[in-house]
């Protein structure tokens, strides 16, 4: 079986309720059976609604055989992932290269 290419989405700034359409479009830009890395290295804030979108996208991908990995979170974003324990639910790597290696290891 030929694996689909890995797509890296790299949002910038604050991901909050005012940007949900953009977040949804980013998460839907890759078919559910595809592989998506969300590079959060240029994101300074993420709200709970956005985090719930990430979880929903992960679940949809799991059902379809796809993958979603978050990467590069730092500062407040990394703390929110840790405090909410979503870093244990959502696959997370320290950077995009590590996320790619994670995806390769699953093949």
UniProtKB/TrEMBL annotation:
InterPro entries: Anti-sigma_ant, STAS_dom, STAS_dom_sf. Residues 1-103 form the STAS domain. It holds the Pfam family STAS. CDD domains: STAS_anti-anti-sigma_factors. PROSITE patterns: STAS. It comes from the Bacteria. Transmembrane segments: none annotated. Belongs to the anti-sigma-factor antagonist family. PANTHER family: ANTI-SIGMA FACTOR ANTAGONIST TM_1081-RELATED (PTHR33495:SF2), ANTI-SIGMA FACTOR ANTAGONIST TM_1081-RELATED-RELATED (PTHR33495). This is Anti-sigma factor antagonist. It comes from Longivirga aurantiaca. The lineage of its organism: Bacteria, Bacillati, Actinomycetota, Actinomycetes, Sporichthyales.
């Amino acid at each position: 079986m030929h694996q689909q290419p890995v797509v890296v989405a790299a949002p910038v700034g604050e991901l909050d309720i005012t940007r949900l359409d953009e977040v949804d479009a980013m998460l839907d830009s890759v078919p559910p059976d595809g592989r998506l890395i969300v590079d959060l290295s240029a994101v300074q804030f993420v709200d709970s609604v956005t985090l719930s979108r990430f979880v929903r996208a992960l679940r949809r991908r799991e059902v379809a055989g796809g993958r979603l990995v978050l990467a590069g979170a730092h500062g407040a974003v990394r703390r929110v992932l840790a405090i909410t324990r979503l870093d244990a639910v959502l696959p997370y790597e320290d950077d995009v290269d590590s996320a790619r290696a994670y995806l390769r290891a699953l093949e």
